[in-house]
Specification:
Structural class: alpha+beta
Distance between the termini: 25 Å
Oligomer: single chain
Radius of gyration: 20 Å
Helix content: 25-40%
Order of helices and strands: EEHHEHHEEEEEHHEHHEEE
Length: about 250
């Protein structure tokens, strides 16, 4: 079967701490298509199973395990979905974007080969992102914690929050952030887990926006944002290319 090698935006860390950057893919088959119709799979588990079926090698290693796929950064998982789609069905993808100004449906044929991808430059796992909150979190003893360190999300984090995302997207986003907190001021890990989502909900909107920006802005991976002009009212607007539509056969 024809295979294709590609360079991951980040890579999978090996036992020595180095990143395995190259991935070898095969085309999506009927076995993987059947996963798209399996109602028992959450969105996160679906991505894991699909990638496990199409990813044949990471670096110089042999067989790729499901656990390897779970350990991949979310940035790499999204990139691999893009590359599998391109390899299997080509670069042209018909999309429809609703204009927020007039509601018109704008039909566009996207060239997936021209989607921007930001790649990490290091050969070791990325360090946590450090931010200082403006207001911070006041714990039960009255101490205020402002310094926050966040790591990049991985596949196992996606699986953890996937079912919640279908019911409550905001709760799922907070749960994902909670998974990615390496340090929050002087709070011990046990306290962070005990305070849980309430700790994040107690933050001001300004601080929450700082966290969102730290998680999203400039991070390695595929830039799914699209800058468009409405074909009806000519208003400019931003939309997102939906990876969930990559494998629709229409």
């Amino acid at each position: 079967m024809i295979e294709r090698e590609t360079l991951l935006p980040i890579g999978l860390e090996d036992a020595s701490g180095r990143l395995r950057r190259t991935a070898t893919l095969r085309k999506m088959r009927g076995h993987e298509e059947a996963l798209l119709y399996d109602p028992s799979l959450s969105a996160g588990r679906l991505v894991t199973e699909l990638l496990a079926g199409c990813l044949t090698r990471l670096g110089e290693d042999g067989e790729v395990t499901v656990n390897d796929v779970r350990r991949l950064y979310s940035a790499d998982r999204n990139y691999l979905l893009l590359e599998i789609r391109r390899f299997t069905l080509g670069d042209a993808m018909a999309c429809a974007y609703g204009c927020p100004a007039c509601g018109a449906h704008n039909r566009v044929v996207e060239d997936l080969g021209r989607v921007d991808v930001r790649r990490y430059e290091g050969d070791r796992a990325p360090e946590s992102v450090s931010i200082t909150l403006e207001d911070g979190y006041r714990d039960g003893d009255g101490a205020v914690h402002r310094d926050l360190r966040l790591r990049l999300p991985r596949g196992d984090d996606e699986e953890f929050v996937a079912e919640t995302a279908e019911r409550d997207p905001l709760r799922a986003r907070d749960a994902l952030i909670l998974c990615c907190i390496d340090q929050f001021g002087a709070l011990p890990r046990a306290a962070i887990e005990a305070y849980g989502l309430k700790m994040l909900r107690d933050l001001t909107l300004g601080d929450r926006r700082l966290i969102y920006q730290a998680m999203d802005a400039g991070a390695p991976g595929v830039d799914f944002r699209r800058q468009l002009h409405c074909s009806q009212c000519d208003a400019p607007f931003e939309a997102f290319l939906e990876a969930s539509n990559f494998f629709l056969l229409n």
